Amino acid sequence: MKYEGNTHVYAIDNIDTDRIIPGKYTKTLDTSIFANHVLEDLDPEFAQNVQTGDILVADNNFGCGSSREQAPIAIKSAGISIIIARSFARIFFRNAVNVGMPVIEVPRHNIEPEDKIEADLSQGKVHNITKGEVYEGTKMPVVMLSIFNAGGLISYLKKHKTYAPS
Amino acid sequence: MGKTIIEKIIANHSEESVNAGDITIVDVDATMATDTTAPLAIKSFEEMGGEQVQNSDNTVLVIDHASPPPNEQVANLQARMRSFSREQNTHLYDIGEGIGHQIMIDHKHVRPGQIVFGADSHTVTHGALGAFATGVGSTDLAGIWLTGQTWVKVPETIKIEFEGKLQPGVTSKDIILYLVGKLGISGATYQSIEYSGSATNEMSLASRMTLANMSIEMGAKAGFVDTEGLVLKEPFEHIQPDEDAKYSEIHKVNVSELQPQISIPHSPDQVVNASYVENTPIQQGFIGSCTNGRLEDLQAAAKVLDGKKIHPNTRLLIAPASKQVLHDALEDGTFAILTKAGATFLTSGCGPCVGTHMGIPADEENIISSSNRNFMGRMGNSKSNVYLGSPSVVARSVLHGML
């Protein structure tokens, strides 16, 4: 699966789930509310500026803090096609895969604002078209890849009804 | 090869004899979801085609985050939790019963050596009992409701030995804040932590829960407090690591010289000696949360505030961790001491820690809280500043109007 788009780069570590979607907006099943407030305490203009297909880029430990699945859903609902981070917090990464929000861990990269990026999840590589560079991503465990390829955990379990399909 | 605690517990729940790094499928003993995460889990469960929740007798729903509901939208989601619980014969603890993690332990939904998944990151609190308990999102939880199982990657383990004797007024909160400051917000990501040493052996269950609770503030998947010295009503099996268990890191911390600790805005790992920020003006104090809302926490605050009044420029909000804590505080006089000193008691539950309602600070205000996170906007206003400390530190700060 390939994702190509313009980037929103936040070159900071530890962007927590409270900044991705504050707790006060999480008590709903209406994902448009998440999309309207996504990342507002980090960048109040993000929700207005983001275009469908854009790529979010961050540094280490992205999504630390709460287990709220509303965090990856908020980013997905806002139209972001893939999140590239140097590392992810554990629960966020698992939630993202479960809800079908593409994520790739790329420890070393040189992505700057305005760079045009193509991320290839099946190859585990990120291509910086602007700079002509290629970055290696960390491979996902097989079980996560199966869940992601099914379109998320709901479709995976709807089909298999078990974590150990024969 | 010797095994750590988490390797033993996961192996006991899996068909394989696993070690760190392995991925395996485990049988789950119990689950918990809150009013923040259960409605989404119910939706996911139905979309998976779920009809009957597996192990419904060990499935717990708790209305603790926005409790009682601040608006009709939240009220309707909570009503859905109640109807789902009736349909599926699960447990449901309604408004005012308390915080999920407290309820799980008090009502024995979790036992030493078990595996518990909760749709709340502070599920790690149950490590105080020697259970493997961790937080997941709503859809992962729905998957456990559907199958009774989930997949886990067996984490490596960091061993922390706390030796020595705490000074009066210094608590397990100060110990864990110190450690979060030392290891950092991602210092234990994807790992488990084993806490042991002479200092933990003497701790109450409540203090042990405070330690395990903030393991997630270092990114840990689980935090186990050595069950040596732990007293429960029923006998239980103490799961100990093997002598030749392999650790990714070992740290020894002498707690005898430790001073009260404070985490400064806007990250739990920005930790300093309390004296370093003294004289910082404070407008609101909060005592409560799954970290420090238990009877010994309220008693510690009452010890500071007995016969005194909080500073006129401050408010003190207290949300007991459970209805039982409230009853105990009423019976032993703690409640009266605190209310006479000027404290306002809130419904047992998460209270203002999650920034949904009941105590959202104004712009530029400084809050001292006994809770676990001070991320920007955590308490509902990104223009306020949240400091974290022990209940004694909170009480002292509201008494003087400054840290």
From TrEMBL, chain A:
Similarity comment: Belongs to the LeuD family. LeuD type 2 subfamily.
Assembly and partners are described as: Heterodimer of LeuC and LeuD.
Which reaction(s) does the protein catalyse, per the Swiss-Prot or TrEMBL entry? (2R,3S)-3-isopropylmalate = (2S)-2-isopropylmalate
What the protein does? Catalyzes the isomerization between 2-isopropylmalate and 3-isopropylmalate, via the formation of 2-isopropylmaleate.
Q: Report the source organism.
A: Natribacillus halophilus
Q: What is this protein called?
A: 3-isopropylmalate dehydratase small subunit
Q: Does the keyword Transmembrane apply?
A: no
Domain named Aconitase A/isopropylmalate dehydratase small subunit swivel: residues: 52-107
What gene is it encoded by? leuD
Looking at the record's lineage, which domain of life comes first? Bacteria
State the PANTHER family in the record: 3-ISOPROPYLMALATE DEHYDRATASE SMALL SUBUNIT 1, 3-ISOPROPYLMALATE DEHYDRATASE SMALL SUBUNIT 2-RELATED-RELATED
The keyword Lyase belongs to this UniProt entry's keyword annotation: yes
State any single GO MF term: 3-isopropylmalate dehydratase activity
Biological process annotations from GO? L-leucine biosynthetic process
- What does the record give as its pathway? Amino-acid biosynthesis; L-leucine biosynthesis; L-leucine from 3-methyl-2-oxobutanoate: step 2/4
Question: Which Pfam families does the annotation name?
Answer: Aconitase_C (PF00694)
- What is its EC class? lyase
Its keywords, alphabetically, are: Amino-acid biosynthesis, Branched-chain amino acid biosynthesis, Leucine biosynthesis, Lyase
Q: What is its EC number?
A: 4.2.1.33
State the NCBIfam families in the record: LEUD_arch (TIGR02087)
From TrEMBL, chain B:
- Annotated EC: 4.2.1.3
Q: Which Pfam families match?
A: Aconitase
Record domain Aconitase/3-isopropylmalate dehydratase large subunit alpha/beta/alpha: where? 7-274, 277-401
UniProtKB keywords: 4Fe-4S, Iron, Iron-sulfur, Lyase, Metal-binding
UniProt GO molecular function: 3-isopropylmalate dehydratase activity; 4 iron, 4 sulfur cluster binding; aconitate hydratase activity; metal ion binding
Q: What is this protein called?
A: aconitate hydratase
- Coiled coil regions in record: none
Q: PANTHER family given for it?
A: HOMOACONITASE, MITOCHONDRIAL, HOMOACONITASE, MITOCHONDRIAL-RELATED
Its required cofactor(s), as named, are: [4Fe-4S] cluster
SUPFAM superfamilies documented for this protein: Aconitase iron-sulfur domain (SSF53732)
Family of this protein? Belongs to the aconitase/IPM isomerase family.
Q: What domain of life does the UniProt record list for this protein's source?
A: Bacteria
